[in-house]
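Journal club prep, notes for RB
We'll compare a predicted complex against what the paper describes. Inputs for the adenosine-5'-diphosphate case:
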Amino acid sequence: MAKIKVLSEELASKIAAGEVVQRPESVVKELLENSIDAGSKSIYVEVKDAGKSFIRITDDGSGMTEEDALVAFERHATSKIETYEDLENVGTLGFRGEALYSIAAVSQIELKTRVAGEDAAVYLRIDGGRREEVSRVAHGVGTTVIVKNLFYNTPARRNFMKANPTEFRHIYQTVSRYALAFPEIEFTLQSGDEIVLRAKADTIRGRLDEIFGERFTDSLVAFEEDYDHLKVSGFLGKPEYTKRTRGEQFLFLNRRYVLNKAVNHAAFSAYENLIDRGDFPFFAIFIELPPNEVDVNVHPSKMEVKFKDERSIYGAIRSATRSALVRSDLVPEMGMAPDSGRFVSRTTTESSRGGIVPVMFNSRAPQTGASGRYIEEERIADAVDPLFSLRLPQPRPASTDSEESDNGVFDTDAGIIYQLHNKYIISQISTGLLVIDQHAAHERVIYERTLKRFNEQGQNTQQLLFPISMNLDPADFSVVEETLPDLNLMGFSIKMFSGSTAVLDGVPVDLKPGRESTIITEIIEDFKRDNDLRLTPREKLCKTYACKAAVKAGDYLTVEEMESLIDQLFQAEVPYVCPHGRPVLVKIPLLELDKKFGRI
Ligand code: ADP
Ligand code: MG
C-alpha cells in the first residue's frame, strides 16, 4: 500500500494559512496592507475581543469589481505582479496573493467592495474557505473586509492565541507602525467601543506627535541624508531621554516596517557611549532604496529584510545618525531652568528647534558600490561648534551695548581658566560658567585620537629603553594575540613568545611615563570584562586605553595644560561625554545664578 498521499485541498489550505495568519494581528496587517496598496486615503480598523471574534477594516481605496473580488480569494491571486521581473521591483506591500486566501481558510469572512462607476457593491461571504453567498449591497467606493471567529476551524491555533491585552498590543503596534509609515493616510483604530488611535493625515512629525505625544517628540533629533540612490531620514531620541521614555525602534524600508540587525546596530553604535548599557534609545528610521537592492521575499510573515549591499547601508545609517546626534546640543545643564542660557557661537546664524546648531556641517556620502567600502566616521571637526566660543578670544564686536545679548556676542575675557580641587576646570563663557571634568575630557580626547590612528598609518610608537616582560596565563595570552594587530596600530609594540610570555618594547607616544608596566594588563582585564555589544573590539581597546592614559582627578594641571586640553576637547567629535557615557562638561547659565541671587 502506498504510504505517500496528497493532502486534501482543505487541509493543505489550513497548513498554508498557518504561514500567513498566526494571530489576529496578522489579519490586521494583511488587510491594512491591501487597503494601503489600493490607494486609500482613510482606513478604519475595528476589532472586538482583540480581534479574536471580530475584525473589520474599511477603506476608501480603489475597490474591486465582482470578477476580481471572486478571484481575490484564490491562492496566488494577485493584481500586483505578473512576471519575475515585477518581483524584483515590487512597489506594493503585498504581492504573494496569499493573504485573502489564507485568512478565508481559517475564519468566516465577509467582503463588501465597490469600484467607482458602479452603483452597488459586491457582497461575498466565505466560511472556512467555502463561498456561501454572492450578492449586492450598498457601500461607498472602497472595500470593507470583516473577519469573524478567527481559527474557529483550527482549534490548535485558536488555543495558541494569547490573552486579549497581549493580542491587542500586537494589533496596536501594527496599526501605529503603518500610521508612521503612511502619514498621508488617515488611520483610526477602534477596540470595542473605544477609539484607541485617531491619526489625521499629517506630516511624519505630526504623526509622531499624535502617537507619542508632543512632549516626547519635542525631544527628538531629526535627520535626513541623501546619498546616490539611497535616502535615509528619521528621528532619534536624545540620549538623556532613554531612561524616561519608551525606547522603541522603528525601521522602515521603502515604507515597509522591517527588522534588520545591521541597521539597528548602526543606529545603536551611533549613540556610542552616550547611553548606558541596557538603555534603548528611541528611533524611527526611514530608508528609501530601489526595490531591487533588497530582498523582501524572505518569508511571508517575517519582517527581516536582506540588503544586497549591507555594508554601505550600515555606513550610511551610522554616519547619518551619528552626525545628527553630534549636531544636536548634548551639553547637560546644571540648574532648574532647562531653557535658560545657551551657548552662542560666533558664526552660527541659524537657530532651530531645540537650540542653536552649527550651520557649516557638511556630510559626505559614504563610498558605496564597487569598492564596497564606506567611510566609517564622518570628520566633523570643521563643523562650527558653539563651544569654540570658549577659547580663542575674539575682539568684541562693534555693538557692545547689550549686556546679555544672545546673538553671537561672546566674552573677550574667555581666557579665564581655573582648576578646582585638581579635578575640575572652570571657565567663563558668554552665557555663564562652564565646568569641565579633567579626567573625562582627557579620556574623550585620547579615545578619539586613538580611534583615528586605526585609519592613519602613522608612526605612533615610542621605543622603551627597558622592555617589559609579562607572564600571561593562557586566556590573557590569547587576548593579546587576538588584539595584537589593533594594539600595534595604537602604538604598542609587543613581541609574543611561545605560550605565556610577551615583551612590551614600545608604547603609544601619548602614554604618560610611569604607566607602561600596568597598561597592558589593565587593557586585558577590561577587554575580558567589558561585554558591551555596542562596541567593537577596537572601540573597547580605545576606551580602556583612554581611561588609563588620561590625567586623573587629583593631577595638578598648569594653565597651558588646561588650555591645550580644552582646545583638543573642542576639536573632538563628541566633546560632551566621556567614553563611559558620563558628562565631560556642564554649564551653569548666568541666568541660573541671577535667579539664585534674586536678581531676576
Ligand atoms: P496580495 O496583496 O499579495 O496581492 P491578497 O490576497 O492580499 O494578495 O489580495 C489579493 C488581491 O485582492 C490583491 O492583489 C488586490 O488586487 C485585491 N484586494 C485585496 N484587498 C483589497 C482592497 N482593500 N482594495 C482593493 N483591492 C483589494
Ligand atoms: Mg495583500
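Talking point for the session: Confidence is low (pLDDT under 50) at residues 335-414.
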